[in-house]
Every structure is written in structure tokens, then in C-alpha cells.
Amino acid sequence: MAAELRSAEWYSGDDRNAYIHRAWMRRGLPGSAFTGRPHIAIANTASDLTPCNAHLGELASSVRDGIHEAGGIALNLPVVSLGETQLRPTAMLWRNMAAMATEEMLRGNPVDGVVLLGGCDKTIPALLMAAASVDLPAAVVPGGPMLTGTFRGRPLGCGTDVWRLSEEVRGGTLDREDFARSESAMIRSRGHCNTMGTASTMAIMAEALGTVLPGLAGTPAPDSRLLESAHETGRLVTDLVARDRRPSTVLSRASFHNAIVALAATGGSTNAVVHLLAIAGRLGIELTLDDFDRIGSRVPLLVNLQPAGKYLMEDFHRAGGLLPVLREVRDLLDPTALTITGKPLTDHLDGARSWDSDVIHRRSEPVQAEAGIAVLRGNLAPDGAIIKPAAASPHLLRHRGRAVVFDSIEDFHARIDDPDLDVDADSVLVLRGCGPKGYPGMPEVSNMPLPSKLLAEGVRDMVRVCDGRMSGTAYGTVVLHVAPEAAAGGPLALVRTGDPVVLDAAARRIDLDVPESELRARTPNRATLDGFASPRRGWERLYVDHVGQADTGADLDFLRGSSGSKVSRESH
Ligand code: FES
Ligand code: MG
Fold first, then answer.
1. When you count CB atoms within 10 A of the terminal residue's CB, does the N or C end of the chain come out lower?
2. Is the pLDDT of residue 227 over 50?
3. Does domain 374-534 have CATH number 3.30.950.10?
């Protein structure tokens, strides 16, 4: 038994090296720890600077109890943590770094399996990318959303209501004192954002992929049942090790098919597109941007959650969570996709039911008949761009307007509220220099605030086009992830203020109505191409030199694929 475990390559035998590996671990571990018991890392993204994940230490103790109960050895492994609200210029700049560091630490250490503790936006994607590339038995425990906070009797959705309230301040319908007062009401408890933003979405994606105990994703962070599930996951991972059930044997193209259906049915974040593409890239699974449109865009939206709808994650959990949603669209799922339980995902749907049909709708009465992500192409986005029709204004989904171009977010902020800015409700706001290379890091700035003079007139949405991302908690008619980005030489760099831009979401088009000959004659604005994107050293240098475009997941070229868990050389 001992020789079959990966950790036994470190610990078994009576030579000097095995002595060294064992002896230093004797700080706390008994001799029996090295006699064939699986060593399970708890990759923990807890950090005071990632407030959404600050509570994961408690979750880790429940995982630890479960691992011990099943005869394993639990080992806390703090890993790079990314706090969405704190990190500048954007947490996304380090998603790939967090994934790389976690992958390397799992490979370099004597562990047989891993429990992945994440929550805030980029943490679960980074952990899954790492687990896929090191290919050790792994399960995710999502840290869970916050409880619903209320302000003056009204529930506040994290993120979504920040955008809404700040627009009200700019539009003059909310004063600054009340705005400040709402701050402490929004974050009511431990946990991540309570809207169907990126964190909730990625927890649900992890479950739909089969890497989470079915039924767990969406359990609120303070809920006792989360601790119970964490305990159960600890047990389960020791079993995954015994059965040698690895990401490469659990995850398949069918898993991603199901994740895309779940993304559409729950109205999940557009950020899931880049994250799922990146995870698939680590597994060598052929997944393209067009798969999101092909598989997802006919799926009905069944979940009535902010930012597209009304409720919050606590309501979603109360109504039954992901499984009853998937049960409604069971015929659209691929029944061959497995989960870490060893059973197909669809086998876990039988007993699932919705306890509140206003939160989780029946298939016969969907929130929207067709949801998901629309993938647009055209001379503005030859490699694709996306829009989330469910979060857009229906009357703007087919639109022609004059471009108002901004070369950076700083340029945008400097001019957007200028009363002399030549902009009206029909204009199309174009922001560039916000892609993976251009910012760098592809920040969530695409949902540009509207000009205050138009807000004062009552305008609440405009067509916006950008090579960046938008927060999963945001809404609006926003064309994002334009590829190639301006800084990589995409045609977005050629747009000039006044050019007619044509959006036709139904036809899946985003075009600049300027003759090709004229476009060819234009030279891109150097400010756009150079921008901030010439870092001299460090991670940013490595990132800008190697990052791919949004349509392939914005991973680094040399991180795609897997290296497995084998380490051939000793350390001494
Ligand atoms: Fe962490 Fe929203 S800021 S999940
Ligand atoms: Mg975010």
C-alpha cells in the first residue's frame, strides 16, 4: 500500500533522504503517518486581504477532521490569494500566477491529493487550473456567499448595488451621506459576493464540472451545512486518492458542456468564459468560444438572481441551489460527464426540487426563454467578442451609433463627465487598452459608467464596446472581451470618434461601418498600443510577453497543458 502512494516516494525506506523527509515532519506527525496513509494538502486561499476568503481557516479545520476520520494526514498549504476588491491594477493579472504557484507547490511537495478552498472571483479558477495541470486527485470546497444585507429595508446585492447606487449619486437622486451609509450594510457577513457574480458563478461552475460535492455550491459562508460538506469533502478526497481518481479522469468535454448549460440557466458571469477556456486549456480539452454560443445560447434562464434579476444567493440556496436548476434542463446535459463522487452529474439530480419557483423557475415558465452568452464577430472583433443578452437592454441589442472613443480608463474618467463631450444616448462608448496585454491583466472596466449629463436625462443604458472584462455583478449592453485586443494589434485600435458602430446581437455581429480600404489606410494610435503595457521586469513582464487573448482564456502560452505530478529528482 505504502509504495503505491505518491508521498511514499518521499517517506518510505530507510535511507538518508527518507529520514530527512520524515524527521522534519515529526513536528506534529506520529510515526504512523508514514505507513501508507494518504497525505492530503488543503490548498487554502484564506487571507485578510481577500476578505471574501478570510473565513476559510474554519472551513479548513472541518476538512482536516474529515481527512483524519478517513485515515489521511491533513496538511495546510497556504497558497496565493487574490482579493478582487483590493488588488491593483486587477486581480486577473495574477490568476495565472496563482495557478502556477499552486501547481508547482503541489507537485514539489509529498502530497497525494488536495482539497481546494476558494471563493473570491479568481481563486477557484486559479485552483482548478493548478489541479488540472498537476493532475492530483482534487476536490473544491467553495467558501460560500455572504448573507443578504439590507439598507433601509431593501436587500443589497454586493457589487450590483454599488454600480446602481453610484450611478444614482452621479445622477443626483441619492446624496453622498446615504451612499456612504450603505457601505457597512452591504457586507453583512463572511463570504463572497452574494449576487450571481463571478465568485458565485465559479462555485457553480466547479460543481457543474463535477469537482464539488453535488449540492454544495452556493451554501452561504456562515451556514453550518457548509462545515458539514467541508468535512465530507475531506473524507471524499482520501477516497479519490485510493481510487486514483484525478482531474484528467473526471473532467471531459462533456463536463464543460454541462458547465456551459449551467452557466446559461443560472445567468452566470461572463468571466466564466475566460476561466472555463483556461481550465479546459490545462486539460487539453478542445473548447472554443463558439461552444458557449452553440451550447448555451438556447438554454432558458431559470434563476432570478441579481445582476440580471431580483434575488440573491441566500435565496438561491433556500430555493434548492444548482441541482433543481439542472434537473429542469436535464435533457440538455451530457449524461456521460462524471463527478468526484464517481457517478455522473445527472445521477445526482433525481431528488432535486425547487422550493421557490420565483427564485428557481420551472422550465415551462423561464425568466427568459433563451439566455447564455452570445459570441459576436465582425470587423471590430475578428476573433470574437461576447455579450450577455440577459443583462442587456433589449432595445439596444440591435443598434447603430457613433463611436466615442477612449484610449484608456484614465482618458475615460478625465472626459466622460465633461459637459462639452459630444455624446448622446445613441452614441457607442468605445474603450480600448484594457485587454490582457494592454492594461495589463484585462480588468473589469468594460461596463463604463454613463456620462452624468445623460444620467440626469434619465438614460440608464448605452451600447459599450471594450477589450476588457466586466464585473460579474454588472449589467448593461456591453460588448466585451473584444479579440484581438487593441494592444495586440486588433482593429479596435483603428476606431475613431464619430465612426458608425453597428451591433446586431441576433445576427452575432459587431462591426465598424467604415470601408475596409479606409481602415487599412489608418494607423493605430500609438498611445493605445503602448499604453501601460511595457513593464520592464517581474511578473508583469512575463505576463505581457506570454499571455494569450480572451478568446482562448487569457492563460500564459507555456502554462497551457499539464505536467502531471511526477518529480524525478531528489532534493539532497
Ligand atoms: Fe470577492 Fe466579490 S469581491 S467575490
Ligand atoms: Mg470581479
1. C
2. yes
3. no
